Amino acid sequence: MLVISIAGGTASGKTTVARSIIEILASKNIHDKVSFINMDSYYVDLSNIKLDERKKINFDHPNSIDWELLYEHLNDLLNRKPINKPVYSYTQYTRSSVYEVIYPNSVVIVEGLFALYDEKIRKISNIKIFVEAPDDIRLIRRIYRDIKERKRNIDEIIDQYLNFVRPMYVEFIEPTKKHADIIIQNERNFNAALELLTAIVEKHTVWI
Fold it and tell me: Which CATH code for domain 2-203?
């Protein structure tokens, strides 16, 4: 089993890289050999807290992740067991009441802010990727995404960015770049890096 971990700051393009790999493999009829784990799904369950209080939580700190459940699920996949992955609601700031069944496959992609932060995950990762883009571009992307997809207002976005997103990136996320095998500059496009990655994954799936 090949484990690919993809980290990077907010709106750097982590999910785009992961889904691009999956889409290319799908065009080659091997998409069913990839299991996708987005770490946002593993934010600590806050359903017992009122919505106004949830909005004050620092989701850009490593403590926001339910590491125990994430370890358990990754271990299950490595042992060829399906998992019930939580589904996170960005509008409610907590897990929803539904889950997604993820089946074990030849390739597991782990994507999230802290995909390279934790030593246990790094140890099981065959390929470690850090996706980066200039701060101003990431902020613009985040504003656009959060307004359009997550129904947030500009004041909330800016407040969260200044108080949580940026300082946590500097303290916890950017330093994990040193663990990466591949650094993707996602200011414009990453086609060359994507071709390399999909070639590696495709070669691996052929022999599984």
Answer: 3.40.50.300
Residue 26 has, within 13 A of its CA and on its CB side, a CA count of: 7
Residues near 22 by beta carbon (within 8 Å), at least 6 away in sequence = 31, 34, 36, 109
pLDDT, one tens digit per residue, over 4-22 is: 999 999 999 899 889 888 8
Q: Give the tens place of pLDDT for each residue, 120-162.
A: 999 999 999 999 989 999 999 999 999 988 888 899 899 999 9
152 DSSP assignment: -
Q: Are 93 and 87 in contact (CB under 8 A)?
A: no
- Decide: 159 and 181 in contact? Cβ < 8 Å: no
- Note the pTM of the prediction, 2 decimals: 0.90
Domain residue ranges in the chain: 2-203
Q: Which residue, 43, 60, 11, 7, is CA-closest to 166? A: 60
User: Rounded to an integer, what is the distance from CA 55 to the centroid of its chain?
Assistant: 20
